[in-house]
Amino acid sequence: MAFSLSYSTIGNYGSRSSMAAANRGSSDSSSNINDTFGQTIFGKNSKSRESGVARVATDLPLVARPPWKQVATERKLAAWTSVQQDRWEGELVVQGEIPQWLSGTYLRNGPGLWHIGDYHFRHLFDGYATLVRLHFDNGRLTMGHRQVESDAYKAARKNNKLCYREFSEVPKHDNFLEYIGDLANLFSGASLTDNANTGVVQLGDGRVVCLTETIKGSIVINPDNLETLGKFEYSDSLGTLVHSAHPIVTESEFLTLLPDLLNPGYLVVRMEPGSNERKVIGRVECRGGPSPGWVHSFPVTEHYVVVPEMPLRYCAQNLLRAEPTPLYKFEWHPESKGFMHVMCKASGKLVSFIKQHIYNGRVIGVIVDCCEHDANPAILDKLRLQNLRSWSGDDALPDARVGRFKIPLDGSPYGELVDALNPDEHGRGMDMCSINPAYLGKKYRYAYACGAQRPCNFPNTITKIDLEQKKAKNWYEEGSVPSEPFFVARPGAKKEDDGVVISMVSDKNGEGYALMLDTSTFEEIARAKFPYGLPYGLHGCWVPNR
Ligand SMILES: [Fe+2]
C-alpha cells in the first residue's frame, strides 16, 4: 500500500492534500486547505547574464545511468516518463528576475522511475522516488535531482526486478512457496515497500525526511546534495504499518495519524524535535465500515486535530491480491458513511464527530477546507500511467472543488459541507494545495493549488484561491502540467499573500522548467529551463539557508 497524493482524499467527505481550516465563530479556531536547457535560453536576469552561461552546466555530469532503457511514451510530456538518469546538478539560466530575498532550498519528492528492465509499472504512485532540489541564492538558481536510495529501489536495481509491494505492483513469484512467504512478509510488513515517494519534510530539529504511507518508508536525506543518509527509525513500539503521508510538521512538533487495520480506528500521535519517539495523544474508533478509511492527509487547528474517516476504506482482501483491483488496496463503502472526528490536542478526548449532512443555523466550531472529489473515487483509476500518457483530448479529469466542512462543537450530530467558492473559478479541478505556513490552523484567506483548464485529463493550471472574495486567479500554459505550487513568504511580510509560489512545469515539448510567480499579482516573475524534462513530482518543503 502506500502512497500518495492529494487525490487520496476522496470521499463522502472528500478531503485534500494539504488541508486547511479556518477559525470561525467559536472560541477555538480552525485549520486550512488541507489536500531543457542549454545556452540558448533567456537571461533577463543581469546576474545570470554576467556570471551566467559559463557557469551553467551544459554537460550532464556524473553518475551512472541506471541499467534500464528510457521508456518510450505516447505523449511528449516528461511528467509521465521515467527520469533520464540517476542524478544531475547544475546552475540554471534564469529568465526574468528571482527576488534577492528568496534564499533557501525547495525540495520536491515524487515517483520518477516507472520501470525495471522491460517491466513497466502501471500506476503513477508506483514509481521509485525522485527528489528534486531548487536552491535559490542571491537571484541565482541551482537545480539537482537524485533517486532516493530506499531498500526497494536498491533491490530492484540489484536484481533487475520488483522486490517489494508497491502501490499497485506486487513481486512475481516463481513458485507457491515464494507466494506464501510473501504473504507472511506482508503481515509483518517486511514485503511492503519503503519507497519514500510522496513527500519530504524538515523536522523541527533540522533533519529532512522523505515519506510515503508505509511507516518503514521514512528516509533521512541530506538537503544539500540529496544523498540518502538512512532510515528514520521510530524508537517507540506502536507497531502499525501505515501512517498519513502528510504529517503536520512545525518547529515544535510532528503530528500524524496511524490507521489501525486490525482494530479499526486511528491513533493520533505526536513526536518532538530531536526525538524519534511518537507518543499517543488519543485514539479514534471507526464509526462505520469494516476498516479505517484511507487517511492521506488531515487538518489541525491550534487546539484540535481533525481525523477524517472516509468511506474509501482499507481492504484486507485487496491487500493480499497479486493483481490490482480498480481501487487498489481500498474498497468503496458509501453505506458506511464518512465522519469528521475532532480531538482535543491537549487531552486526547474527542470533542465531536460529525456525519455529513447539510444544515443551517447552528453555531460553527471548526471549519475545514478540503480538495473534495464529489464522493467519487474515480480519480484513482485516472492516475494509471496508460491513462495519463494516452490522453485523446477529451475532458477526462473528474470534477473537484474546495469543499468546506463546517463542524459544530456544541454536540450537534451533523455538520455542513458547502462549496468554499464556485468550482468553475478554478475549472473544477483542485489538488496539490499549499498555503502560507504562518496561517496553519488559523483563519486564512488564500490557498494555492492546481486547477483545470478544460478539456484535460490532469490538473493543468496553477490557481490562487481567494476564499474571502470567492475568486481565483489562474496561470495556464497550453499543453503543460505544473506541479504543486509551493508558497514561500517574503521575510517580514505583513500581507498573507506577499511572497512567491514555486512550481516545476512539464511542457508540451517534453521539456521542463522551474516557474516562479509573484503571489500578490499572480504573474510570472521568472522561469529557468531544466536540462531535460523531469517526471511529475508530488509534495515538497522549504529548507531555509542555515
Ligand atoms: Fe498528497
From TrEMBL:
GO terms for molecular function: carotenoid dioxygenase activity; metal ion binding. Its cofactor is Fe(2+). Signal peptide: none annotated. Keywords: Dioxygenase, Iron, Metal-binding, Oxidoreductase. It comes from the Eukaryota. The keyword Secreted does not apply. GO terms for cellular component: chloroplast. Fe cation binds at residues 246, 296, 539. Binds 1 Fe(2+) ion per subunit. InterPro entries: Carotenoid_Oase (IPR004294). Pfam families: RPE65 (PF03055). One of its GO terms (biological process) is carotene catabolic process. Belongs to the carotenoid oxygenase family. This is Carotenoid cleavage dioxygenase 8. It comes from Mikania micrantha.
